Amino acid sequence: MTTLSPLTILPLSVTIIGAAFAIVIFNHYFGTRRRPHELVWGIAFLLFAGAGACQVLADVSGGWTPTLARLYYLTGAILNVAFLGLGTVYLLFNRRVANVALALTVMLTAISVYVLLAVPVDASKLSDEAGWKAVAAISTAPRWLAAISNTLGTLLVVGGALWSGFVFWRKRIMRSRMIGVLLLAAGTFLVALGGTITGLTGLTNHDYLYLTMAAGVVVMFAGYLQTIRPAPSMQSAATQPAAGRTTPTA
C-alpha cells in the first residue's frame, strides 16, 4: 500500500487549495453577472491544482511518466501564469484589448500543446524527483514557451496591479479592487519566487516550489475576494432607510 510522504503533502495542498478556490470562483461567476476575468482566473486556479496533482500522482505511483511530465509542464510551467495575466487584462482593460489578449493566449495554448506532444522526453530524468524537467532536457522549445508565458503573464499581473493601484489611489476610488490586484501581484511573485529559488539552489522541487506555490495561491485568492467586494458607497447605500431614496441603477 502506497503512503504519502511528508513532502507529498505540499503538492497535495496545492491541489486541494487550487481546486477549492476554483470551485468558489466558478460558483460566483455562474451565480452572478458573468465577468470574464472570473472565468479566466478560475481556469488559472485549476491549472495550479492540476500541476500539484501531477506531482502527487508521480509520488504515489512510484515515479514520473512521459504523460505526467508533459501534463505538469503544460499546466504548471507554461499556462497558469499566462491565464492569471489574461484575467488581469479582462479586469483592468477594455473588452477589445482583452479579446486580443484572449486570442494570443489561445494561440499560446495550442502551440504549447503541440510542442509538448512532439518533443522527445529524456527517460533517464523521469526517475528524478522533479521528473517533469525531462520534457525540456532534450529540446529547449518547452523552456522558451515557459519563459515567454511566465514573463508576459507576470508583467501583466504585476504591471497591471501597480498601474491600477496608482490610478485608484490617486482618484481615491475602488480601494478594494486596488488591494485585490496588489494581492494578485504578490501571490504571482510568491509562485515565481519558489521556481527561482529551486533553479538557483538546485534544491528538490518539493523544498520551496510547492510551499511558495500554495502560499501564492492563497494570497491570490485573497486578492480575488477583494476585487468582488462591494464599494463602500454601495454598502452604505444598502443600509440607508428606503424612504426618500430612489432605486439605484445597475
Main attributes of the structure:
single chain; 250 residues; mainly alpha; Rhopdopsin 7-helix transmembrane proteins; 8 helices
Q: N- to C-terminal separation?
A: 57 Å
Residue share in β-strands: under 5%
From the spread of the alpha carbons, the general shape counts as globular
Largest sheet: none
Residue ranges: pLDDT <50 for 5 or more in a row?
234-250
Query: What is the CATH C-level name?
Result: Mainly Alpha
Radius of gyration: 20 Å
Q: What is the succession of H and E elements?
A: HHHHHHHH
The total tally of domains equals: 1
Overall pLDDT score: 82
CATH fold-level topology: Rhopdopsin 7-helix transmembrane proteins
Tally of DSSP β-strands: 0
Task: Note the total helix count.
Answer: 8
Structural class: mainly alpha
How does CATH name the architecture?
Up-down Bundle
Helix content: over 70%
Explain what this protein looks like in three dimensions.
This protein has 250 residues and is mainly α. It has one domain: Rhopdopsin 7-helix transmembrane proteins (Up-down Bundle). Helices cover 76% and strands 0% of the residues. The protein contains 8 helices and no strands. Helix 3 packs antiparallel against helix 4. The termini are far apart. 42% of the residues are buried. The C terminus is likely disordered.
What's the layout of helices and strands?
Blueprint: H1 9-31, H2 36-61, H3 66-92, H4 95-118, H5 141-171, H6 175-201, H7 205-227, H8 232-239
Helix pairs in contact: 1-2, 1-7, 2-3, 2-7, 3-4, 3-5, 4-5, 5-6, 6-7
